[in-house]
Amino acid sequence: MATRRRVIQAAVTGGAFVLLPSGIEFVPARLSSPAGRTALDPERIGKYRTRLVVPPVMPRSDRGSEGGIDHYSIGARQFRQQMLPPGLPATTVWGYGSTGQAGTFHSPSFTLEARVGTPVRVRWKNELLDRSGHHLPHLLPVDPTLHWANPPGGTGERDGHPMFRSTPGPYTGPVPIATHLHGGQNTEESDGYPEAWYLPEAVDIPAGYARVGTYYDVYKHKAAAAYGVTWNPGEAVFQYANDERAATLWFHDHALGVTRLNVYAGLAGFYLLRGGPADLPDGVLPGPAPRPGDPPGRSYYEIPLVIQDRSFYEDGSLLYPAGRAVFDGFKGPYVPGSDVPPIWNPEFFGDTMVVNGRTWPVLDVERRRYRLRVLNGCNARFLILKVVAHPAAHRPADPAVALWQLGSEGGFLPAPVQLEQLLIAPAERADVIIDFTSVPAGTALYLINEGPDSAFKGGRAGTDFVPANPSTTGQVLKFVVQSHTSPDTSVPPSQLTLPPLVPLGTVDCIRRVSLNEQNSTVLPHVGPREALLGTVDGHGKPVLMRWDDPVTENPALGATEVWEIHNFTADAHPIHVHEVQFQVVDRRKFGQKATLPPEPSERGFKDTVIAYPGTVTRLKATFDRAGLFVWHCHMLEHEDNEMMRPYRVGPTQTTAPKNPQGLSSTGVPDPAPSPASSMDMQPDPPHGAAAGFSARRNPGH
Predict the structure, then answer these.
(1) Which of 22, 270, 392, 448 has the fewest beta carbons closer than 10 A?
(2) How does strand 179-182 pair with strand 247-253?
(3) How many angstroms separate the CA atoms of 142 and 138, rounded?
(4) Distance of CA 179 to the CA centre of its chain
(5) What does 505-530 look like in DSSP terms, one character per residue?
(6) What is the per-residue pLDDT for 673?
(7) Contact 103, 284 (CB under 8 A)
(8) Where are the beta strands (DSSP E) in 325-381?
(9) Which letter does DSSP use for residue 496 in this model?
(10) Is the pTM of this model over 0.70?
């Protein structure tokens, strides 16, 4: 019997400054097969030998701010980047950059700076081509047996679940992309819908391939009508209104069934929205942050940090599993002997920590306060971050300085929250201040990770789960404290008054949704073969739904709803709802009436929430933009294999670009949403799911 959730180790057998990516070079050549390459032992990667890259600001296109709109032309390209320390090979990655300036391509991307009230228009281009205009294959193994974009299926079978008579190898054709602004509140044609992908405009697209996804032309025409823009082959033009609260957003690829691979390859970056009534005046918080035209060597005191786990081969290339056996040892049968995907892994945990595109970097900090915009950019890894004096200290380690969290995904919290450690799930962001004022010059401090090297279930490090390996994935970033070069005039976090929150309105209805996993139906002891969302029936049992099942979440335009997320799985999941910012209401374990309020650091607006196993997590949102969007788990391996569902705000369509493919997989209709008056708890889900819930932001306290 295959062992479920086997921990994956990817050894599979002076002040901050902008560091421009001078080590990047364009790579037109196609990668060879991974056969014969050896995994790089993370213990051989020297730590704290390279400076942290502080992402510069993405330059606008030559149209600048024409018509009161900030214009950008941003492409996705393949290039080489020195992620590993000097002396080890460079890594071929994908990343975004300004199409007119080759030196701006980096992974993670340069930062898009936006202002509340000033729209941003981005021409997103798929430039995954060689110099001859031929398409580049994926850097990583694509499982073509999933429900995915499926360009080889043509217009009739695109965005489908292809059938094979024998186990296929990885897909090697042109790669689809669709960029999503995560946390934005925009109209449907600018969302980056998973079925609105597009291939590069290559000279060698095979005959019969679909070049665009099912919804691409629908949104192309909507964008033309709304903004007068033209989408050329190999691109899409999105407009972001920027009429929400100032916040830490990010953008990443979202193409159907390949998001885990496109993001792992490097397609991600920050989008910082500033200004408006929900921001603070300049000078109150630590700054400056990078700005266009900054001189070389300028010191920054506001720094974005994207933390990712990656694995490498000895030749420097990215390592991602090419088969299911890496996860649990299951070597088949696959097609046609079972329904288990041959390449897809239910989760993947790299063995090397990467911050802003460098492995285990170092940051010189002055004796003053720093504002860090932290993003968990891992595919599946939950992070528990802490600043300590000794990087290999026994876990759980004693904190050396506090973390002050000011904001979450939707902007500032009601008040600053002092933390010893920060639990942050994939896709969550935290706006944090660290105060080095009282730390003697010459001191070295370390940002460590005490989250597990496996799926997170809740609980306490060292008690409920084994913390990350202290010599590898348990270390993240080194701070070296220097004397300050100028006075720090920012306000101490304990004395800050943050902008007020406007509460959401009266609840119109309650919906009950579910998180599920399913083992093989042919080999029942092998699993999971897919992760699914769904609804909850009148008996408290899950109704499993797949991506192509009819829409079951259909809020009225302007409605405020409570969604009750029932987690029937053994693991915690970060659940993201597109194009809304919600508030966490409470949580309760299965079988209990008592509820737990959100943690203080969850009491602002959010777009991603941790749903613990054996627990009902409730969130409240107002759906004020009509259109077709998605909600999903942000463990990207889950999202890519059915743990994503469309939802529609406003009236349902009478016609669609393609025919719906039948009723739900269980054949059971979704119960009608509960009216707002039925806020009392509904029947409980069955008992037996793991219930490892604990206080969210300070496990163990």
Answers:
(1) 22
(2) antiparallel
(3) 7
(4) 12
(5) ----EEEEEEEEEE--SSSTTS--SE
(6) 44
(7) no
(8) 352-355, 358-359, 362-366, 369-376
(9) -
(10) yes
